[in-house]
Design brief:
The protein is an alpha+beta fold. It contains 3 helices and 6 strands; from the N terminus they run H-E-E-E-E-E-E-H-H.
Length: about 140
């Protein structure tokens, strides 16, 4: 019984330390979480925002690893690649598209990826935000 209690205490301490280290890394930018990919040594967060087709620029990455596949990345006209790129990725619920794949925005800035409509620079290059459906 004493051994079981001791092992449980050790496990709780290890879990606590791992959690604190993870939070510290994510707050200082040393780690990343959520969907995204590494591009040029930087983690780019996946947005639910679809990039307008008429602002897709040159290819800046081919066969970039993403989840269990690889995708193409394109520059967005008028936007520096250090701010955001477009990735041809499988669409998921919440993107507002019915297509199987779409050009979604990716940004190294998690806040910009979460709300590109809040940025004057990015709001002009993404499609309007999908409106949630209301049920009665």
């Amino acid at each position: 019984m004493t051994v079981v209690v001791a092992l449980a205490c050790v496990a709780a301490v290890v879990v606590g330390v791992v959690g604190v280290v993870g939070v510290a890394l994510s707050r200082r930018g040393g780690g990343a979480n959520g969907a995204g990919l590494n591009y040029r040594g930087t983690f780019y967060h996946l947005s639910s925002a679809e990039v307008r087709p008429d602002v897709l620029g040159d290819v800046v990455g081919d066969d970039v690893p993403f989840q269990d596949t690889s995708i193409q990345l394109r520059q967005i006209e008028g936007v520096d690649v250090d701010t955001a790129v477009a990735g041809f990725v499988p669409a998921y619920p919440g993107t507002g598209t019915t297509a199987a794949v779409a050009w979604l925005l990716l940004s190294p800035d998690a806040d910009l990826a979460a709300d590109p409509w809040g940025s004057a620079e990015l709001a002009r290059v993404v499609l309007p935000a999908a409106r949630p459906t209301q049920s009665r």
